[in-house]
Amino acid sequence: MLAAAVCATQAAVAAPSVATLERSHWPERIDSPVLFDVASRAHILLFARSLLASESQDEAQLTTRLGLRQINLLAINDLRQRLWQRLWANFDLAQQSCEQDASFCYAIDSESELRTQAADLGIDPESFYAGFAVPGQVFSEAYLNELLRLAAVSPQTTSEVQLLSEQEFDGNGFADRTFLLSFDGGPGPVDGTTDALTGYLRAQDLSATFFVPGQTLQARAEKTSVAQLQALYAGQCVATLGWQYVSHGQWDKWQDSVLRSIALLQADLPDSYVPWFRPPYGQRRADSGGFFAGAGLKVALWNIDSMDDDSRLTAQQAGERTLSLMLLWRRGIVVFHDTLAKAQTAVPWLMRETAQTDIAWQACADVR
Predict the structure, then answer these.
(1) Which segments does the entry list as coiled coil (predicted)?
(2) Hey, what CATH topology would domain 168-366 get?
(3) In sequence order, what are the residues at sequence separation of 6 or more whose Cβ sits closer than 8 angstroms to the Cβ of residue 275?
């Protein structure tokens, strides 16, 4: 998703790297709420160090760093400010368990003190966590580049890194340790990956929001039946990606695309339908808030992208990336693609890895 959004407007010098991190570099299982906090603090501090270092680079250096021809420095600075606010809020939550485990705990009481600690951060070569230091920093640098690149090409190309109206949400406003699982692009072929994932979720007493293109949903109903479509999504939530999985940022028929899809969902899946629109690639018009308000729709973005749609990532890497970002942001909307086989491996792995951390997987129907 991230790469597609950028390439829509500017040619990069080379394909941007995707942040991945083998969880084996972290030396202990994250099998308790306290150990979730320890890993969370480590990720926040390393990412804060990367963010702080990026602020010393001027516009020309950032342009080269991001592999773009030109950048929107004001948008980058605005994103940095919001990132610092989230990092401090998350670190403050993560340090509440420092009495149980003092790893990566410091006397930090404000955003400015977090900046100071990030600048001074060092992981001793003899530390239990020494093996995480370099891979963790590499991951932080690569992920920061992904975010900065999205900000750099705005407002010509909108994305998930900025909310444009009160109708939009991305999961950063959820309660601590609360996550919503979401999938894009389905339904897939009969008895394919979408069927497997919805069956798995029901068996685990979990729910997710499935964002579907209207024409794909219609084709599946015509091949089977509306009743079978309803059975497919029983216990789950279904929202729209528009009629086609194409950018709605410049398309002159974007409003018709959204309204036509809503009508189909309301008619065929009334028990599963939720009034949300997810813009493909995160691209939508900057002045679209009034339309969505008038249509009674929320724009559901995301803040944790598995990148399972990137051919360079394996299913394991997509799952590991997702867990790393969950530790960093501590709440949010996770996105996978139910038409890809990777999610069938990555999602169960993610559930096993977080089973003892006391995180909450939000029931999709309860999100307002």
Answers:
(1) none
(2) TIM Barrel (3.20.20)
(3) 239, 262, 296, 297, 298
